[in-house]
């Protein structure tokens, strides 16, 4: 399974946004065997759906915070004809509050509860890839759910942050002598 939230803004990439997005999507589709789940911006939804129609679109309503009017699409791509995503999805809309204040360690950090809820739905996906690892939310949740994880990140600062957050999720699971 690929579970990721790629850069939403032109300023966050080096190059032409849609050219790079095409490369990302081609690679995600190439390396993923069952399902790819991509959280993106509502501002880019029409173009993304026109170019890469998902099997299903879910919605993250950003909960009860001051930003409750905000939402993000969660695009579900069924990669394998043998893996029927619709049999795993039990809900299409998730009201989960955004990460704010002292709990926010990355400017685009998403809530662990959202990731955990969605990842739990997709059975038989032991390995999770996040090619835009950021602060490591996907990895932290994968470890918590006892799944295998591969994260890719270019920013050295975020790599260290992700390693710490994912490592902190592993420590409570270790047995004490």
Please estimate the helix content: 25-40%
The secondary structure category is alpha/beta
The CATH architecture classification is: 3-Layer(aba) Sandwich
Reported for the largest beta sheet, the result is: 5 strands, mixed
Mean pLDDT value:
85
Q: How many E strands?
A: 7
What quaternary form is this? single chain
Class in CATH?
A: Alpha Beta
- From the N-terminal CA to the C-terminal CA, the straight-line distance is 34 Å
CATH fold-level assignment? Rossmann fold
- What's the helix count? 5
Q: What order do the helices and strands follow?
A: EHEHEEEHEHEH
The spatial strand order of the largest sheet comes to 1-2-4-3-5
Low-confidence stretches: 173-177
CATH homologous superfamily assignment: Vaccinia Virus protein VP39
> In one word, what is the shape?
globular
Instruction: Classify the beta-strand content into a percent band.
Output: 15-25%
